[in-house]
Write a structure and sequence with these properties.
Helices cover 64% and strands 2% of the residues. The chain is an all-alpha fold and 183 residues long. Among the domains are: 3-53, no CATH class; 120-168, no CATH class. It has a two-stranded antiparallel ribbon. Helix 1 (3-14) runs parallel beside helix 3 (34-53) and helix 6 (133-146) packs antiparallel against helix 7. The longest helix has 20 residues, at 34-53. Mean pLDDT is 76; it is low at 126-130.
Length: 183
């Protein structure tokens, strides 16, 4: 038998309530296990204390003395806790009013724009260059597509690839210039 099972049965063992077979198993375990034997000793000492002091009778006249003090109004009340004020009706009404005021203030206050930067105009100079018609339409297309969904960046890359495919290749122009010089 393991210690957890024996410790569950120790209270019944100490008052001789177990059947014969279980009683012998617990007794055999107690002979081998010092921890469970110590647990039984502590349990027995607690039971001795309960038997010794559990049956004390109150002093004569205690009940009548307490009753007489209560009926005479001589009971001293303890001062309530400092936080007991928050449980009173005025405090709860004040807290509810403040909460409702905060909600109303949040709903009625004017809001400022989320972005303080002005929207970009595609015709303004960017890094010393003015956006061309194709570039400005690409920027507009990207801005419109970016608000539509999660694949907006892919749409922008495809649009830029189309613009790049439509423009003549500068490296081909450089090759032709080199070839002309060599000739």
């Amino acid at each position: 038998m393991d210690c957890t099972r024996v410790r569950d049965l120790l209270a019944d063992y100490s008052v001789q309530v177990l059947d014969g077979r279980t009683h012998r198993l617990v007794e055999g375990h107690l002979q081998l296990c010092a921890d469970c034997k110590e647990e039984l000793r502590v349990l027995d000492s607690v039971m001795i204390l309960v038997e010794e002091y559990g049956t004390l009778a109150p002093p004569p006249g205690l009940f009548n003395a307490v009753r007489n003090q209560i009926e005479a109004g001589q009971v001293t009340r303890q001062r309530p806790a400092w936080w007991a004020f928050f449980l009173t009706t005025p405090a709860r009404v004040t807290a509810m009013g403040m909460a409702m005021g905060a909600v109303a203030l949040g709903l009625l206050m004017p809001t400022t724009p989320t972005s303080l930067t002005p929207p970009l105009d595609p015709h303004l100079p960017i890094a010393g260059q003015v956006a061309t018609g194709e570039l400005s339409s690409s920027i507009r297309q990207h801005a419109m597509a970016a608000t539509e969904g999660p694949l907006a960046d892919r749409v922008a890359w495809e649009a830029m690839a189309q613009i790049a495919a439509q423009q003549p290749d500068e490296s081909a122009e450089k090759k032709t210039d080199r070839e002309r010089r060599v000739e």
